[in-house]
Fold this protein.
Amino acid sequence: MNSCGHCACFMCAVLITGIIGQSQRLVDGTSRYNGRVEIFYNKTWNTVCNDRMDKKEAQVICKMLGFNSSRALVVRTEMYKEGSGPILLDEVQCQGSETSLTQCQHDGFYKHDCYHYEDLAIICSRQPERLHLATLDRGRVQILLEGEWYTVCIPDVHIARVLCRQLGQPSAAAVPLKTISSGPYVGTKLMSGLKCNGQENSIIDCDQTTFNNEEWRSKICTSDSDYSGVLCVDSPPLFILVNEGRYPVMERTNVTLTCMSELWPNVANYTWPETAGAVAIENDLIIENVKRTHNGEQVQCLAVSSDGVILSSDTFTLQVYYYPIITIQMSSTRSAIVFAHIYQVRKGQNTTFSCDAVSNPLPASITWSGRVNSTTGQLRIIAAEAGRHNGVYTCTVVTKTVDDDERLPLKASRRLIIDVKDNWTKANTDLSHFTKTCRDTFPW
């Protein structure tokens, strides 16, 4: 197999010579593992029509290109653009053991009734897929295949239950969400026509509908609502969705929680017995200016169905990302806090300033900068001396990142002034020069 490395747009990402002197490639993809299929035959590059294609044909192509053939998907042409030039094959049907598409049953070279919007495109995945759910048990689902994130189409309960099972969530009564926004899309929409029976352990284990037949048309997910996400439950209660963007919610934003039921659409008399101090308006719960104290708060909603059944949601625990709250402690007894941000240290003394923080996500790094630097959260002043240690120091805390969330990491800083004195008392301290510097530089 020959790889051309970093060709623009992966136009020649993968080339391999077949057993009858042909070469195959994936083009216009986002990596060497996906794109439109083209075969070099009769001195030119040709596309292949996707009529009747499913996983078996995708597996043959991935194997032909030297990739793992078991985790392959046929996808819609529009994911990787239409091709041009001749269409070599149509109505291709493989058993799965072939080493080239030309060994599969087909209508013959250049015999077809296709247009380029039907060009065959595939994804070859070598590693097990990774799934991400927008919240703990509900929301939009993303899948990671060969380093690329895709948003998953969930047109029916069978796919919903397989996804929830694979995510380790309750799945017996899992349903697609089609009425509420589940946050922004991540990556490309995965247009694959997956067909599950609901018992599979992995979404990639599901079959694919044969392209361009009636069943395929029912599962191609042309509506944005097909990508709204999933609710993972074992029983059909009401459920609570977060309507604004990604979850967990962000400190200092406004958020609306909505009480919904996919299984009982005709419900009324919504009530919120637990509100976390928010304002309830029918089936909406509005939180203005989310605070870190909302993290861990619980909410719950009730409603009555059209046939008089009282419905109850599970208790929903709010998760809030909030900026680091920094505290600084000083170890030496020969030092004093003159103001909230000014520390006086006796000449010659050893003093340690410890910076700590609480945040969500947890801190990933705590560093000090100033005339002495540190990456451990501990600022050590050894044998304090005015000429070497007087000045402004900054503790900076950066949180961890989670699931490629573009809002993270969060960052906060706290500053202090160190003033080294030969002999000092709180009453006679003159720090006017430091106070001026501080006020000119930082808005204390």
In short: The longest strand covers residues 320-330. The two ends are 64 Å apart (CA to CA).
